[in-house]
Amino acid sequence: MVTLLATGFALSVRPISAKTITTDSNALVSMEIKIPVADGEIPAYLAYPEKGSDLPVVLVVQEIFGVHEHIKDVCRRLAKLGYLAIAPELFARQGDVSSMTDIKEIISKVVSKVPDTQVMADLDATVNWVSNHTKGDTSHLAITGFCWGGRITWLYCAHNPQIKAGIAWYGKLTGPTSELQTTHPIDIAPQLKVPVLGLYGGKDNGIPLDSVEKMKTLLAAGDSQSNIQVYPEASHAFFADYRLSYNKEAAEDGWKKLQDWLTKHLK
């Protein structure tokens, strides 16, 4: 079990772009904490405003690089907006991806071995911990995730009826099934009850636009009031300001849409 979060950025994403956004902790409480789970504890990053109580809560779900500096910064950005943001390390049992230098190694040795049921349970445990140990009000609960975490965002919104809103950034919508991944977002779209905003890149080589269009159609047939925004000129990971994939225009518009979505459905 990995017991500590990464310091700085994951090795596999270096060198870090000069465009990287750094959010300070002024007027915030930010720290690493431990979440009790069925077989021990997993580390998580927590950030919230120093002042205020009954704060709306946003779960932040990592990319394949784990809870490294970028995910921590996203938590601080949300805290600056008045939310309690928490990012649990959901690969804690399978390995420390922050020290791996090759993306293929990360996927084969860690990411491919993480069961969806484990992830859902760890997010449930995180919600429970927030409810019992913080100023967060989990009756106003949202989730956002990036890449690997984008897919998890869709699935968790179907799993936990307590969620009031989700924002999924370029998460895969379909794919092969296995014992570890029995369901994909496209399978739960028609029955989804939680409003989810999907943010996707038109030039994402890993997520075909036909799967995005099919997801839109299935969502329209349901009653979740979910929506998908496609940025035609953006590629995968367009929000990741520390990477070459960063698309400033799409990222800034997506962040604004995230704020509007949370305001509409959460506050």
Note down, in words, how this protein is organized.
With 267 residues, this protein is α/β, with parallel strands linked by helices. It has one domain (11-265): Rossmann fold (3-Layer(aba) Sandwich), CATH 3.40.50.1820. Helices cover 31% and strands 23% of the residues. It has an 8-stranded mixed sheet, with helices on both faces. Helix 5 (185-188) links the parallel strand 6 (163-169) and strand 7 (196-201). The longest helix is centred in the middle third of the chain and has 18 residues, at 116-133.
CATH class label: Alpha Beta
Q: According to CATH, what is the topology?
A: Rossmann fold
What is the name of the CATH superfamily? Alpha/Beta hydrolase fold, catalytic domain
Element pattern in H and E: EEEHEHHEHEHEHEH
Helix content: 25-40%
Distance between the termini: 36 Å
Provide the gyration radius in Å. Answer: 17 Å
**What is the strand content?**
15-25%
For the largest sheet, list the strands in their spatial order: 1-2-4-3-5-6-7-8
What class, by secondary structure content?
A: alpha/beta
User: What ranges have pLDDT less than 50 throughout 5 or more consecutive residues?
Assistant: none
Using the 3D structure, state the CATH architecture. Answer: 3-Layer(aba) Sandwich
The beta-strand count equals 8
Main beta sheet, described?
A: 8 strands, mixed
Overall body shape = globular
Number of helices: 7
